[in-house]
Structures are given as structure tokens and as C-alpha cells.
Amino acid sequence: MTSKADRVRQAVLADILSGAVAPGTPLDEVALAQQHDVSRTPVREALRALQGDGLLEVGPRRQLLVVDVSPERRREVTTLRVALEGAATAAACERRDEDDLDRLELLLLKQGRAAGAGDAETFLRLDEEFHLALAGAARMPTLSRMLEQLGAFVRLGRLGEATTTPHMHGLVGEHEELVSLLRSRRAARLRSALATHIEQTTPRG
Amino acid sequence: MTSKADRVRQAVLADILSGAVAPGTPLDEVALAQQHDVSRTPVREALRALQGDGLLEVGPRRQLLVVDVSPERRREVTTLRVALEGAATAAACERRDEDDLDRLELLLLKQGRAAGAGDAETFLRLDEEFHLALAGAARMPTLSRMLEQLGAFVRLGRLGEATTTPHMHGLVGEHEELVSLLRSRRAARLRSALATHIEQTTPRG
DNA sequence: AGTGACTCAAATGTATACATAAGTCCCTCG
DNA sequence: CGAGGGACTTATGTATACATTTGAGTCACT
């Protein structure tokens, strides 16, 4: 059931997150409509959805501009991730579902492989997936949704940086430690380790 | 500049939060369009926006249904409020802007008046405003936005309850304590007092 | 020469007509 | 008599035409 509006939304989102359209760029409805060979209607819906996610903001002339993630905003996002993922893992310790642990272990394996291959792009994708899966173990859908939205800002904030991720192996080790702490239900220790991990992986955090 | 889409959105939102349209009710575009004397276009935009806020969910036949806030969801929302407002007040302790404290004091006065008059409706509105102002002192716009969205769920979850708020004076006292802790920058104490306060004011939390 | 208002252009906001898909009901066939 | 299929109904999805608002540019007047 992929509507045209959905396709346009995903395409524009991909362009934003990949940096193909830089922050501050105004998005024109008719241009996007022609570009994707659809009418303005689905384009409008896509833009409103992205606006709802906070990825677009109204500028002068009512233009929709791609948001610029300021350093302050990056710090805020980091703080929010610490708070939300911390709460999630605390709740996850109460449940400790085997399926979740299995999923996390699988992701750890894949991350190790990506790190070994030096595939930074894949690693970043797996890293995001890992954090979402970790928080997902809390079975708190609203929280997961918030973290997904924050993920877009994290990616946007990383755009200006070097594409190389230096210590991938070290990060995998930290992830393994997090899973271990979840398995042994050491909630307090898990929360603090997670906070340190998140703050170290988001520069200027 | 209030567009028709905005007006419809606010009207439908008000109907949802007031319980005029019960959870599970399917919203029909053409019916809403006739009801508000506009075309389907602004109605669609309004519904998509509310869907983006999580207040509508797709049911069978692709209908948009007003969400039902389950007890689990209420607990989740409470957990999220504790995490987010806790993080906000911790950050606010670092800033401690006089303007924020003034605004909070003013709200405390109004709350005391509403409590004295036994005006539960006004009190609830002021309570929500107080918590948003408290968190707003952190100057973290994304966090404030999340809390605003959560506020809708809080209100929805309260719909089935008695409209009477018994210990309004007691709640004002707790609020005063929170402001006092913010003023003296006792972050840890503030966080725990806030958590207790939030959990006690949201039943089944 | 500067300021203000008027006009024009280009964008978004809105309405409506059309396309399409999904569900239901009925008819037919086994 | 039951099950399956097909048309009709009714919703949403999409396109397009129209309205409106806003910004810019120019011209006139002070």
C-alpha cells in the first residue's frame, strides 16, 4: 500500500538525510512534483509529514526549509537520547525477553563483521538499528517512535563530519557490554554505561 | 494567519480531547468537511497532522480512528514524562533564568486561586501549563514539543475519570516545592520530587 | 532623493472533479 | 444449500483548476 505521497516522502527524506539537499534549502512544491512526476497533492502531504517530524521549518515567504541542526540542538538530542534510551533500558531490564536478546546478539555479530570490513556506512546503519532494538526491548511504542524521530536529527548532525568511523571495534565492544548488562538486569549500571556511550558517540555532546 | 486546515485541526483536536468524539470513533473526511463547511483538502491535512501526533490510527477499511489510550499506554506516557521532565528540570537547574521563575510563580498564584474556587477545569489547564513552563525553562525546544504531544495522551487518558480533582491545594503545595527546588538548584532532589509528583497525579501510573 | 502605495507575479491554500481500491452484497454455479 | 466470484458502493488517493496571500518592484508624490 505504498501511496505516491509515501514514496515522495521517503525520497525527500533520503535526500535530506544523505545531504543531497543541504540544510537551509527551500523545497518547492511544483519542482518536487515535476521531479517525481506526480501532482502537487502528494508532494504537499509528504512535506507536511516531514514538517511534522521537525525536519522542515517555515522560513520567510512561507517556504519550507530543511532544518539546520545547530550545536545546541545536537546537545539537546544527545540529552534526549540519554533520557529516553535510559528509561527504555531500565524498563527492558524488567522484561528481559529472550527474543530481544537474540536480536541484539545478531546485530552484534553483524556489527563485528562490518567493523572488520571497515564498512563505515553499514556500521552506522547497524548502530542505529542496534540502539532502536535495545530501546525496543522495553515495548514502549511511543518511546520508540520518539527515538526514531530523533534518529533523523542525529544523522543530520553527522552530515558535516568525516565519514570515517575510527573505533568501530571499540564501539562494538561497548555494545556487547550493554547487552551483557541487560542480560544480567543491572539496570543502574546499564543506564550509566549507555549514557557514557551515547555522549561519546555524538561529538560536541 | 490561521488557515482553514489549522482551524479544522484545532476543532477536531478539541473534540477528541473533550471526549466529544470517543476513542475508536472513525472520522469521515466528507462528514467533517460538511460539518466545518470546507472542502476535503483542509480536512485531510488536519487529519494527517493529528495522525502524525499519534492521536489517530488507521483501522480496518483504512479508516482513521481516534486512538484509545490503554492502561499500558498510560503507564508508558507517565514513564516518558518522568524521563523527559526530569531531564528538562536538570538542565533548567543549570540555567535558572529569573524570567522562568517569575512565570512559574505567577502560575502558582493562579493555581492557588483556582484551587480556592474549586475550579477543577481551570486547575487542570494551569497544571498542564505549569509542567510545560517548568520543562520550558530548560530551553530545549524538541523536548518541549515532545511533552506537548504527550499532554494530549495524558488528557485522553483522564477522560474516563471523575472530573473532580480532590486535593488541588496539596498539588499546589507540591508545585511550590518543585519551584523552590529549582530556585535552589537542587537537581537530584528536584528530579525525584518531580517523579513522585507525576506518578501520583496519573492514576494506574 | 526617499518613502509610500499600488500593481504584478509567484508561491501556497483551497475547491472540485476524477481515479482507484477495498468491502459488501447478491447472484450464480457447484 | 454453501461457496466463490463479480459488480456496485463508498471510501480514500490523486490531479487540476481556482483563490488568496505575500513579497517585490516601480512609479508617483512629497
What does this structure look like?
The structure is a homodimer of 205-residue chains. The first copy, chain A, is mainly α and 205 residues long. Chain A has 2 domains: 3-66, Orthogonal Bundle (Arc Repressor Mutant, subunit A), CATH 1.10.10; 71-201, GntR ligand-binding domain-like (Four Helix Bundle (Hemerythrin (Met), subunit A), Up-down Bundle). The first copy, chain A, has 9 helices and 3 strands; from the N terminus they run αβααββαααααα. A 3-stranded antiparallel sheet of chain A has the order 1-3-2. In chain A, β2 (56-58) and β3 (64-66) form a beta hairpin. The first copy, chain A, is elongated, with a radius of gyration of 18 Å. The model of chain A has no long low-confidence stretch (mean pLDDT 92). The interface between A and B is medium-sized, with 26 and 26 residues. Chain A binds a DNA duplex (30 and 30 nucleotides) through α3. Chains A, B: It comes from Knoellia locipacati. Chains A, B: Residues 2-69 form the HTH gntR-type domain. Chains A, B: GO terms for molecular function: DNA binding; DNA-binding transcription factor activity.
At a glance:
The structure is a homodimer of 205-residue chains. Chain A is mostly helical.
Question: Any descriptors?
Answer:
205 residues; mainly alpha; TF_FadR/GntR_C (chains A, B); Four Helix Bundle (Hemerythrin (Met), subunit A); 9 helices; DNA-binding; Arc Repressor Mutant, subunit A; homodimer; 3-stranded antiparallel β-sheet; transcription regulation (chains A, B); DNA-binding transcription factor activity (chains A, B); 2 domains
